[in-house]
Write a structure and sequence with these properties.
The structure is a single chain. The chain is mainly β. The protein has one domain (1-126). It has no helices and eleven strands. A four-stranded antiparallel β-sheet has the order 2-1-11-10, with no helix packed on it. A three-stranded antiparallel β-sheet has the order 5-7-6, with no helix packed on it. Strands 3-4 form a two-stranded antiparallel ribbon. The model has no long low-confidence stretch (mean pLDDT 89). InterPro entries: DUF4280. This is DUF4280 domain-containing protein.
């Protein structure tokens, strides 16, 4: 299957999270697909590009995540994603502002053990 470029608003998922999220880009790199800005592998920053994934099912000791409770009263950890580095698997032969373009096969990782991936690139209907 061909790789598809990821654009602003694409749907992300974390292997440890309870909900999906959307990737954002505050300022366009100047390259567009389907009328939306394309992203590159450096668009991985917490709070700027990636927000949170609801509750985290990892219970790492000594971290700063906030405790919360689910609808059944069970203690859970609120997701505070700590991204370890750029997306892996970008399109090296098509640069977006001097970095490999972000494609739907890319992944990055959270310090708490989650693998973050692209669930839908948003260029076509799901």
């Amino acid at each position: 299957m061909a790789k598809v470029y990821v654009i602003r608003g694409a749907i992300l998922k974390c292997s440890c999270g309870s909900m999906k999220s959307r990737i954002m880009i505050p300022v366009s790199h100047g390259v567009y697909a389907a009328g939306q800005p394309k992203l590159n592998i450096n668009d991985y920053k917490e709070g700027e590009n990636i927000t949170h994934f609801g509750f985290c099912n990892k219970t790492c000791g000594g971290d700063t995540r906030e405790k919360g409770y689910d609808s059944k009263g069970n203690q859970v950890w609120r997701c505070k994603a700590k991204i370890l580095g750029p997306w892996q698997g970008g399109q090296d032969n098509d640069l977006v502002e001097n970095a490999p373009g972000l494609t739907d096969n890319c992944v990055t990782h959270c310090k708490y053990g989650g693998e973050i991936s692209i669930e839908h690139h948003e260029q076509t209907p799901k």
